[in-house]
Structure formats: structure tokens, C-alpha cells
Design brief:
single chain; 329 residues; alpha/beta; Peroxisomal Thiolase, Chain A, domain 1; 2 domains; five-stranded mixed β-sheet; 11 helices; globular; binds oxa(dethia)-CoA
């Protein structure tokens, strides 16, 4: 029997605090007009002091478990995709495992920049297809507000906090994760990095003074890379799934910049009506962006059983990933 990995539950959490472009105008030399025109972002959610990646992950996971009708004690594996974990170690996934009371679950973190969620989906679906596990929780979560230099207008306007989660389970029907494509080009690692605080450049007074604990990004380079890679990545996932671009009912790209999304849609000849966009409300939530967008798309009735969804993401690494998912169990 072939075991397909169906998405049985989904959910997301965004912190209550909303930071608008007008709030940012008071903080750095920027304008609502520049941010909206160059990125499509109007506002983003920022974690409260009491929140962090594991707490938001656990909340998104509880919502996904409730929607799946699966108990935490029945989860076999928890994967947290994040570039902003609670700690270098222990893994955020272990903190989530404890918070949920997922007593029989294995747990690990996976870091592939903004592509982490799709990487996690790919890993989880292999475990299910192989018969190793039945219920796998895949979470994408970020608290990038803690790593943003709030004096650097080139980065601080872009990012937001939040978490999204899905519960995958086995199905005998040809549904769920039909294909995934994973890619990396480590030669572009310097274009988007957080240089200090780990083994290569440990924390010191100097690293703090140099701002090396903040996100460093060459926005233009990441932009060009994204525009170059997205079309090919989606076409590969579609070919692997044995469908055509016309069969895609909803395209859910990583929500980083509306201009990148529009360019991808044009390259793939997908009308914008088939493209899900919420970057205006959340900014770039990195690993969380696709599961948040998926949850909102489902909640707003834009996804029906049998629909083919195409996901694509790109980010630090540099990495990219795409997937085709058939909705329904
Ligand atoms: O998930 C992956 C993570 N990263 C990304 O997705 C980032 C991809 N890149 C981008 O989205 C875009 O490159 C940015 C939105 C980051 C920047 O947009 P851009 O159109 O590439 O602008 P730019 O960097 O070429 O800057 C144009 C001008 C510069 O001024 P000068 O040198 O021409 O006088 C910047 O200093 O815009 C200025 N600028 C700003 N002005 C007002 C940069 N940031 C701001 C700002 N407000 N927030």
C-alpha cells in the first residue's frame, strides 16, 4: 500500500501587537509610501516580551492539532523550522514537545532560512511514506524582531513575528504532499546572515559593538536570486507531481515582497487571482509565512478538497524549496 502524507490539520498564531508603517516612520527615516511600494507591506505583528519562538509554535500547534482532531499524545514527531529559535540548544522543538505534552514524540529543529517549513514538510512526508511515523507536526515559526536592528531601515521594515503549523498523517488516497523540491547555494550565504553568537564568531563586546548579532542582508542580491529561482523551483515540483501549471488552483509563495510574488506569478503565467497574498498584514515572517498563509487561505474558503496547491520559498543559505500539495484527506 502506498502511504500518502495528507495535511489533516492547520493553524497559526500571530502576536497581538501590530506595528504599522506609520509607527516605523517614528522610528527610522522611512515612509509608509516607500514601504508599500517597494515591498507591499503595511503592517507586521511583533511578539510581546513574554513571547518567543517556542511559545508561538506551541500555540499554532495547539490550533493545528484541534483542527486535525489529533491529541498531542498521538504525535510521533515534531519538526520546528526556524531561523530564530529560542536557543542554539536545546532545540525549540523539544520545548514545544514539553509544552504540548506530546509524550511519545521525537523532536528536532530544522534550519533552512525562510525555506525551513517546506524542508520540514519534505522530511515529514518521507517519514510517513516510509511507514516510520503516522502523525507528524511541522511548524514554521520566527521571532525575527529580536534579531532586527531597529535603527536599520533597510531591514527593520521587512520582518514580522508569528508561527504556523500543520499536522500530517497517512492516507491511502493520492493526496497531500505530492512532490517536494529542495535546493541550496551556499556560495550566497553572506547575502543574508546573522554573523555572531555561534561557533565561528562567538559573542563578545566587539560583536555587540559591531552589530553582528543583527540580521545582515544584501536586499538586492536576495531579490535577484528569488526572482531567478522561484519559477524553476515551482516548475520542477509541478513536473514531479505529474500535473501542469493550469492544474494549480492556488499558489502560496513565501511572503517576502509583493514585487517578488508578482514577478513569480508572471513568469509562471498564473493570474494573480490564483495567488495568495497576505504580506501586507504580516510582513516577512520567514519560515512561518507559508503555514500562516495556508491557514488563512483555508479559513477564507479559498481551498477546496481536491485542489492542487503550489508552495515555494527562498531564503538564507541561500536555500529554496517548493512543493505541490493536493488538498483533502
Ligand atoms: O525571505 C528572504 C528575505 N529577504 C528578502 O526577501 C529581501 C529581498 N529584497 C527586497 O525585498 C528588496 O531588495 C528590499 C525591499 C529589501 C529593498 O528594495 P529595493 O527596491 O531593492 O531598494 P534598494 O535596496 O535598491 O534601495 C533603494 C533606495 C536606497 O536609497 P539610495 O541609495 O537610492 O538613495 C535605500 O537607501 O531606497 C532606500 N531605502 C529606503 N528608503 C526608505 C532602503 N530601505 C528604505 C526604507 N525606507 N525602509
Amino acid at each position: 500500500m502506498i502511504r500518502y502524507a495528507a495535511i489533516r490539520g492547520w493553524g497559526f498564531y500571530a502576536p497581538d501587537r501590530v506595528l504599522s508603517n506609520f509607527d516605523l516612520e517614528q522610528m527610522v527615516d522611512t515612509s509608509d509610501e516607500w514601504i508599500r511600494e517597494r515591498t507591499g507591506i503595511s503592517e507586521r505583528h511583533i511578539a510581546a516580551d513574554t513571547e518567543c519562538t517556542s511559545s508561538m509554535s506551541a500555540e499554532a500547534a495547539r490550533r493545528a492539532l484541534a483542527s486535525a482532531g489529533v491529541k498531542a499524545s498521538d504525535i510521533d514527531l515534531i519538526i520546528v523550522g526556524s531561523a530564530s529559535p529560542d536557543y542554539l540548544f536545546p532545540a525549540t522543538a523539544c520545548l514545544v514537545q514539553d509544552s504540548l505534552g506530546a509524550s511519545k514524540a521525537g523532536a528536532f529543529d530544522l534550519e533552512a532560512g525562510c525555506s525551513s517549513f517546506i524542508y520540514g514538510l519534505s522530511v515529514a512526508s518521507q517519514f510517513i511514506a516510509a511507514g516510520t511515523f503516522d502523525n507528524v507536526l511541522v511548524i514554521g515559526a520566527e521571532t525575527l524582531s529580536r534579531f532586527v536592528n531597529w535603527k536599520d531601515r533597510r531591514t527593520c521594515v521587512l520582518f514580522g513575528d508569528g508561527a504556523g503549523a500543520v499536522v500530517l498523517g497517512p492516507s491511502e488516497q493520492p493526496t497531500g504532499v505530492l512532490s517536494t523540491v529542495l535546493g541550496a547555494d551556499g556560495s550566497g550565504g553572506d547575502y543574508l546572515s546573522l554573523p555572531a553568537g555561534s561557533s565561528r564568531l562567538p559573542a563578545s563586546h566587539e560583536t555587540v559593538d559591531n552589530g553582528d548579532h543583527f540580521i545582515h542582508m544584501s536586499g538586492n542580491e536576495v531579490f535577484k536570486f528569488a526572482v531567478r529561482i522561484i519559477g524553476d523551483a515551482v516548475e520542477q515540483a509541478i513536473a514531479k507531481a505529474g500535473i501542469r501549471i493550469e492544474d494549480v488552483e492556488l499558489f502560496i509563495p513565501h511572503q517576502a515582497n509583493i514585487r517578488i510574488i508578482q514577478s513569480a506569478a508572471k513568469r509562471l503565467r498564473l493570474p494573480m487571482e490564483k495567488v495568495f497574498v497576505n504580506v501586507d498584514k504580516y510582513g516577512n515572517t520567514s519560515s512561518a509565512s507559508i503555514p500562516i498563509a495556508l491557514s488563512e487561505a483555508v479559513a477564507s474558503g479559498r481551498v477546496k478538497d481536491g485542489d492542487h496547491l503550489a508552495f515555494v520559498a527562498f531564503g538564507a543559505g541561500l536555500t529554496w524549496a517548493s512543493a505541490v500539495v493536493k488538498w483533502g484527506v
